Amino acid sequence: MTDTRRIRGGNLLARALHEKGVEHVFTLAGGFCNPALEGFMECQLPVINCPHEQVAGHLADGHARITRKPTVCLVGPEGFANAVPAMLEAWGERSPVIFVTGSSTLKRQGSGGFKEIDDVAVAAPLTKYSVQITDGERIGEFVDRAWKMATSGYPGPVHLSLPVDIMFSSFDEDVGREERPFYRRDLPAPRAWPDPRDLAPLMDLINNAERPMLIGGHGIWWSGNEKALEAVGRDLNIPVFNVPYHQKLLGEDCQAYMGLADIHQYPPSKFALEHCDVCIMVGGRLDNQMNFGNPPLFPQTCTLVCVNGSHEELDYNRPADHVLLSDAGAFFDQMAELPPFQPDWIKLNRTKRADWVAKTLSDLKAETASAEWGGHQIHPLELALDVNAAMGENDWLVFDGGNTHFWSEIAVNVAGWQGQQLAGVMHPGSYSLLGVGVSFALSAKNTHPDSTVVLISGDGAFLSGGLSIETAFQEKTPIVVVIDNNGGLDCISQQQERLFENGTHFATDFRDIPFHTLFEGLGGYGELVETRDEIEPALQRAIASGKPACLNVKTKGVISPIVLATTNKRDKASIE
């Protein structure tokens, strides 16, 4: 009889995550985490070492958003503090990242141990589940619990804290296997099925509508039902909108897709909301982005229906006229059985979109040709449109920043109406956290190595997270970073100029930063762009370089429609 092999607690942790099917681990390697790193090495799981723990968290988040599978961010105690912003961003998008902290010793907890921090308490409001593992024999159990919490219902990040004395202690490699579940591989998450007594009257309400519209949210993406959403919109002649600050559910070229449900940034949605009689929001929340379900976004003339696949979502939707607990796919299956609506309504919405595109381009041309424009400075919308024009249907576009984000959203919609197709679009989530762009671009390139990935980043956003570009060089990952360089935190400057009594801005300017030479110094490609006709040729050269590349584009700060709409009164200081 042979003795059971004994392995460290960190190795047990790595094995449990490997058994679940984890494919991506991100870290800044530290001594507290070495046993887990040894375990990942033995399991032959690739680990990407990052220059900062926040970068590791954003990379884990980006990979989770694209693959819709849990990823791991492994950090030490002080590294956990650095990773908190990434935890916040993942929480806003309900991204199933498993944050693991190698924490201070359990034996001396509360006595001022080395790098001691109450990581469980800090993570609790930013995760679905935050716990310290106090018994090494239960490591597999807690990984199983965390995984199921991260992937079931409304998914989201979770946090496991493994004290360093348990991390380094030895245990039988099959410890805990005498209890159920005996097999701990990943299983499909349970789905909520609609109660027929609730579903039938809701189907009658929708069937009797004359001008219905759909708004798709997070729940559709994480349950993998965007194709069902597209089919319902197309086959039933229902205009479809996307909640802001979220993974794009449908391509901009989709016949039923109309744009963001944002009356400031995308005026056609205002028309749709004012004239629809039934608005069906699936997998979304009536939070600040949806004006908490109130006018003027949702007028009283509109019957508001919220369909959500978990109670966590429904808890946000108290103001709705009707709520239904249902998996998005099950709900769309029922909708698919309804007869199509008259096409006049969706045609009218398409006309409004066409009119908006034409007006946007006309206004852009008039603005840049005016005497007030002052020369050949590049408009941020021109920059975003030209970047779109240089990309193909297999390419990924990422944007990051304040006004840069908003203008890029508009450009994607305009280009989509004109026939542009992209493989994917990524951007910050509901917390608008600057500095995620490079990490998300790396995630897109890592998961789609044959695609060209371009990031349009504000200069302030790049300064917030630009250190992450070192990972692109380390991993030999060629992404192109196009910096919308207007010399400051322009979104904030413009709010200040409308808020401050003297009409000026303060503490928001940058020096003239040569971002392109930074890339050259690191071994990549860099180019300064100062006129519009240089944008597309420079972008092609950057792509052809096969290196991490930067176009430092000198632009003029121009207030975006959403910032203008929400700061037109001096007492209105924030986007909300």
SSE topology:
Blueprint: E1 6-8, H1 9-20, E2 25-27, H2 34-42, E3 47-49, H3 53-67, E4 71-75, H4 77-93, E5 97-103, H5 119-123, E6 129-132, H6 139-151, E7 158-163, H7 164-168, E8 170-172, H8 196-207, E9 212-216, H9 218-222, H10 226-236, E10 240-242, E11 257-260, H11 267-275, E12 278-282, E13 303-308, H12 311-314, E14 322-325, H13 328-335, H14 344-369, H15 380-389, E15 396-400, H16 403-417, E16 424-426, H17 437-447, E17 453-458, H18 459-465, H19 469-474, E18 480-485, H20 490-499, H21 515-522, E19 525-529, H22 535-544, E20 549-554, H23 561-566
Parallel strand pairs: 2-3, 2-4, 4-5, 5-7, 6-7, 9-10, 9-12, 10-11, 12-13, 13-14, 15-16, 15-17, 17-18, 18-20, 19-20
Antiparallel strand pairs: 1-8
What does this structure look like?
- With 576 residues, the chain is of the alpha/beta class.
- It folds into three domains: 6-172, 3-Layer(aba) Sandwich (Rossmann fold); 196-348, 3-Layer(aba) Sandwich (Rossmann fold), CATH 3.40.50.1220; 376-566, Thiamin diphosphate (ThDP)-binding fold, Pyr/PP domains (Rossmann fold).
- It is built from 23 helices and 20 strands.
- The strands form four sheets. Strands 3-2-4-5-7-6 form a six-stranded parallel beta sheet, sandwiched between helices. Strands 11-10-9-12-13-14 form a six-stranded parallel beta sheet, sandwiched between helices.
- Strand 6, helix 6 (139-151) and strand 7 form a beta-alpha-beta unit.
- Helix 3 (53-67) packs parallel to helix 4, helix 11 packs antiparallel against helix 14 (344-369) and helix 15 crosses helix 16 (403-417).
- The radius of gyration is 25 Å and the shape is globular.
